[in-house]
Amino acid sequence: MQSTSAVRSQDDANQAQYQQQQDQYQNDKDRYEAQKDHYFDQRAEYNYDRSHPGAWWHDRYSTVTLNHFYDIPRAELIDLRVMREDGFTVGRIREIDRHGDGHVAAVRVVFRDGESAWVKARDLRYDPDDQIVFTDLSVVQLHDMARNS
Q: Counting C-beta atoms within 10 Å of the first and last residue's C-beta, which end of the chain has fewer, N or C?
């Protein structure tokens, strides 16, 4: 027959093991919930990014001019979406560089993955109706710019 102290010691050990398993379960559950939330956020962003199909993009891009982009006030440019030809949002404008005459020379675009690149104004078009900036630069070109910025 076990002594009371041995039973109490075994009970404490069992309780500690149980608590450790409960903590592990809760950590695993929290990690799963975070991954699930991240997945749904990404899915929502994907659906949002694809709100403008390629045909719409080509139609809009052909009607906007570079001139619309050069004179836009800073407050209107900051945080505008920059879209690619395939309808995906590349990123958002975070900074602006202007020439001495006040025209936009380049903008710093922060991509969805956190990288950023300075994109020259000549590679961008602005649609004042939808307040979207278009670029016909490829993803590879944009990321090359990020590495060289």
A: N
